[in-house]
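Long-time lurker. I teach an intro course on protein structure, and each term I like to show students one example going from raw sequence to a predicted 3D structure in token notation. This year I'd like something fresh instead of my usual example. Would anyone be willing to generate the tokens for the chain below so I can use it in lecture? Attribution to the forum is fine with me.
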Amino acid sequence: MLWLPALLPLALVEARQSSPIGAFASPPSQRNEGLGHISIERVALHDEEGLAAMSRFCIDAFYNSEDDANNLLSRKWKDIKLAALQKAQLLEISLSSAENRCIFVAKVADGNCDEIVGCCEVIEERLDTQHPGTASERERRKTARPRPVIENMCVKPEHRRTGTGMALVKACGETVRQWLGHDEIFAQVEENNTPALRLFERCGYSVLFADPTCTKVTLDGALFSEETVTKVLMRKLLDGGNEMF
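-- Reply from a regular --
Happy to contribute to a lecture. Here you go:
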């Protein structure tokens, strides 16, 4: 898991049903037995079923744990909070004004069921890449402009180190190549998330600076709160060819 904006903004501008954009088999040295064939799919804005499935997976990955499994009252209130968060997320999708936005899910074929094992989003949003977090808000507004940023990336633990995360990052890069006016792509990663930092480095991203003024939403029991965290801003320059790792 990498990061989470306040309302888990997960939306896209495609007007088609969810469609596969690629598939891969994990390298023999990294493949776990029984993981199956992974495909990366782009979810369409009008695909309510696909968006709901993705939202459940994402919220579960970021917020669910077994800590309160034995406390039925706590579990009930937490489920209510998570259901409300999912509704807010889907509402944000319908109200989104982002011109360029796309979400991907990674699925593994398991018999007759396609299970979601990972997801991420790339969205064009205003981002300052010139100043670290210690700069004033006024200074940062001067250089902030729409830039493609990868967000809300998560992969199920049993599917990490199998190439799933790299495939999701690659899908984002290939999508941004089709957006006018962009020759670079960015990601923000919490500074203590070493596996995620290494993943993006392997995908060709380099560190720009650490921003100590970022925030994330946390769930303590049945209560949501926002806390300040340090995130590392990373960038990759896109050439004219296919994404290569």
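Some talking points for your students: Residues 218 and 225 are 5 Å apart (CA to CA). The radius of gyration is 18 Å.
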